[in-house]
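Chapter summary example.
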Amino acid sequence: MAAPRTEVPAPREPWPAHLLAFTAAALAVLALPRLPDVRFLILAALPAFAPWRRRALYATAALGALLTAWQAQRALDARWPLEASGAERAVAGRVISLPESQLAPPDEGGAPRRDWRFLFRPDDPALPPRIRVAWYRADAEVKAGQCWRLTLRLRAPHGDVNPGGFDYEAWLFRQGIAATATVRAAEPCARRGGLWLLRARQALVDRLQAWLPQHPGLGLVLGLTVGDRGLLTERDWDAFRITGTSHLMAIAGLHVGMVTAAAYFLLRWLWVLWPSLTLRLPAQKAALVGSAATATAYALLSGFEPPAQRALIMLLLGYAALWFERPALVPRALMLAWFAIVAADPLALLSPGLWLSFCAVGAILYAVSGRLGSGGRLLELLRLQALLSLALLPLTFFFFQGGGWLGPLANAMVVPLFTLLLPALLLAVVLAALAPALGLPVLSAVAWAIYAVRAALGWAAAHAPGAWIAASPQPAALLLALLGVIALMAPRGLPLKTFAALCFVPLFLPFASAPQSGFALTALDVGQGLSVVVRTAQHALLFDAGPAFGEDFDAGRSQVVPYLLAQGVRRLDLMIVSHADVDHRGGAPAVRRALTVDEELGALATRPCVGGDRWSWDGVDFEILNGPQDAADLPHPRNNGGCVLRVAAGDHAALLPADIEAGAERRLLADQPQALRADVLLAPHHGSRTSSTEAFVRAVAPRVVIYPAGWQNRFDFPRAPVVARYAALGAEQHMTGLEGAVTVRVDQSGILALGSERRLHPRLWRQPAQPVPGAPQSRVGLGASP
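The structure predicted for these 786 residues follows.
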């Protein structure tokens, strides 16, 4: 008689394997250019129901993919449609965030005005549920929780798209913001009630502003208590970035941990003062309950943003393990917190804060487990800080394009100070509310102490040599550094562990992505402005640096510098600022702060552009055709006196005429018509009707025309008659605002390749590339990687 068959039980994979499968599947979906069809997802999930050995692991991965696709589709479905951008709607609704504001120019009568930005939830279900609203030159005060009846000009989520640059559309996507809008008309409405937490935070903001009027530390106090960072300036953020302490102003695990630790030790000390209480509940468990409640209150006070949510979930799960006296389960609680957070919101994987916070907590748990050895308190603190800095180094370079040696030292000194100052600040706020006569002096003293720390960080950032190393390493270098982190944290007996530090060296080494011959020209997407990068085999030139408008937007900081670093450029041989308009010069200071600029020419330099100046780099010829002295007798001398640059590889050239108008075009046609011939043309003055005269267009005879103009810009550039002139020649036309950064490769044989960022690198949250209205279809090779 045959023996009965016994089924081999499916292996039970450990928790980390399931978390890795779930996370990898979610990331794979987010990396797709568009979401797969629902029928494909259903078919892909079917193997999870078949009886095979690895079906549990496969089911976990399928769950991650399905949840991510569902959440992403919901976010995409809520977005305002691209074709309806510019439409106006009158709607009532509520302000659902703490508003940000800055002073605007006063009106004609001298009355003050402010620019406001806030999230708005309209009552109309036909509109997106979360709209980011800008209200310029407003004469009203906007408060969180207020009801307003607004006339909004709505726009689909859209932003500048450049390799390595800040992806505004991705940020809107992960924040759940489905539209942006500007206010055309407004009147308040009288609705009250609801949004109690938000209105309580606004009330605390108002009190703090009244308690600390004109105090230099007010912005820091608001940021640390209610998460309102609107008063922090670019100089503040530069100081935090260079010293590696930006995390101090983003309420997350560190802050929740500081408040929790202070509450735990205070409550434990108070509890033992009443022995009868300890008989009912041990002091340790009473402190756990009280500190968990304190952490929850602080997370709510800060706005319960995703970083605070993640920190609170990790804390409560860890506390649960300690409550049941199972400290060995704390690492598993951390994994469970990751699963809960990512399952609830897979789009959080796009947030740097998620990765940084969990890696930091994991490194701390590893360090306090005693695996790094023992020693005195100071030695253990320094060892922990060194481990944290090294563990987060690859992520810091990946997300923030740089790192610095000052960070570990600054954090070793500042974090212990904040461990005392943050609980003291919260206690001072409570005391000021209960007993102003006693609490206000204490609050002011703590605010001055916090400001003193910020001032010290600013001094260190300004005076420490080479404190920040700007770099955007290649993926291979990042993976090697990650292996270095793993090797350094491994047991002491691991072979070659002493050489693990060498794995970090490639992070700091430059890499080359320059053309081997000819030149590569990239017209960056900087909104309504101009910034062009020209690279030869060994040199890099920046022609204009894009716009900057106060603290709101700086194309140099958010787009130009990140693009250059992503291309391996840390030193510019030459920066030319064609003329003094802010949409051309605004980003130049940010470029100087981040990169080494060997030489400058033009409006911001002591040496102006002079027609006839020539030089050669790597077989590529550069020539200035126009400068300020050429426009002395022309109207609009600022525009007509702008630098005009010609770049040529043999007989094939690109022409960069900045904002010259018809007068300068006529002079160039009269003086040097042969020099105007070019294969690639940056349309003069962004495609304005004041430029691109018929004679100029015929003289240049471009094969490719690039309009450096913003999407749906208020000037309606490029103008239809200009587009028609180039179309009549059969020129291929592209616009940075519609396609993202446009790159052209040119050598002595002609145009080798032409590509735009939106076409070459689509993302599921990005709007698709659009053609220039009225222009002929692409023929040169758009879509081929340059």
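To summarize the output: The longest strand covers residues 179-189.
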